[in-house]
Write a structure and sequence with these properties.
about 300 residues, mainly beta, Neuraminidase, four-stranded antiparallel β-sheet, 20 strands
Length: about 300
């Protein structure tokens, strides 16, 4: 459920037309798994507008946060404490739609991932065939990273397994696989002071390497977590409580290349007096999903530019 920070980033079409995403016959954005088109840096200067709750996904009696989508924007997964069969402190729910212009279906519990523990911060891969999430099912209060896979988008998710190399005695959270399958961004820390880190591997079937801090996103005085990163890992949207944040707010971090440290700015148009967290950006860079308490309970919102 909601903690203290989040991140996200974006990618744009390689055809040069803003808002265009090249898709294959199955509707998946072309590239290595979808969602890995080159980043259009010009989008970063545009303001997010049309901020509105996604009514079909929200209940006034529960909290919904941590939205994550497949690259084609046809499946959304999120964390909710709404009641359901086999649910616990927080569980992963999903909704789908036939096209991006259709309404979202009624959310359903992802039953193979549910437990009596806190299951949170889902991060689905762009192609929709794997998903990482955090859970304290092994040690209450100590979140570790788990992964689940499926053979096709029509198959149920498999039983989750703990990813030992991404799990520690600290809080491990928000394990976001990048579209190349060789980089993964996550958060780790103690006492809710998490830092953003990156792990790499040589092949998609190799174990993940030890996570290392992302320079500029590892301030020990503040929480930086719940990120969404661009495919080249040079743009990150995340949440932190550093000043001048009013609570937990969404920030934008950029760097010129992979050898440089990130610099951050507050995304003021998304700010409210209460928490605004969990950003996720569409591959074309024009649609944002995030969570906010601005309407009372924590709900999922969208914005566009």
């Amino acid at each position: 459920m909601v903690r203290t920070a989040a991140v996200l980033a974006l990618a744009c079409s390689s055809c040069g037309r803003l808002g265009f995403v090249d898709r294959d016959a199955a509707g998946v954005a072309r590239g290595d798994g979808g969602g890995d088109a080159p980043l259009d840096a010009n989008l970063l200067g545009l303001t997010w507008t049309n901020i509105a709750p996604v009514a079909a996904l929200n209940l006034s009696t529960s909290d919904e946060d941590d939205p994550t989508l497949t690259a084609d924007l046809l499946e959304i997964y999120f964390d909710s404490d709404r009641p359901g069969p086999g649910t616990g402190m927080g569980d992963i729910w999903m909704s789908s739609r036939a096209s991006v212009t259709d309404a979202w279906s009624a959310p359903v519990l992802v039953a193979p991932l549910a437990s009596p523990a806190d299951d949170t911060t889902p991060e689905v891969a762009a192609d929709g065939l794997s998903m990482y999430f955090a859970s304290d099912r092994l040690n209450p209060g100590d979140r570790d990273i788990y992964v689940t896979t499926r053979a096709t988008r029509n198959d149920p998710w498999g039983a989750p397994t703990r990813v030992a190399e991404l799990s520690s005695s600290l809080t491990d959270d928000s394990a976001e696989p990048l579209p190349d399958g060789l980089h993964l961004v996550m958060s780790r820390g103690a006492n809710m002071l998490l830092d953003l880190m990156v792990s790499t591997r040589s092949t998609k079937t190799s174990p993940w390497g030890a996570p290392v801090p992302l320079p500029g996103l590892d301030d020990p005085m503040y929480d930086e977590s719940q990120q969404w990163a661009s495919p080249d890992l040079n743009v990150v949207y995340y949440v932190t409580d550093r000043p001048p944040a009013m609570s937990q707010d969404i920030w934008l971090a950029t760097r010129p290349d992979s050898q440089s440290a990130f610099t951050s700015t507050l995304v003021t148009e998304l700010q409210s007096p209460v928490i605004d967290v969990d950003p996720w950006v569409s591959p074309d860079g024009h649609t944002l999903f995030f969570a906010s308490r601005r309407n009372g309970s924590v709900d999922i919102f969208t914005a566009s530019r």
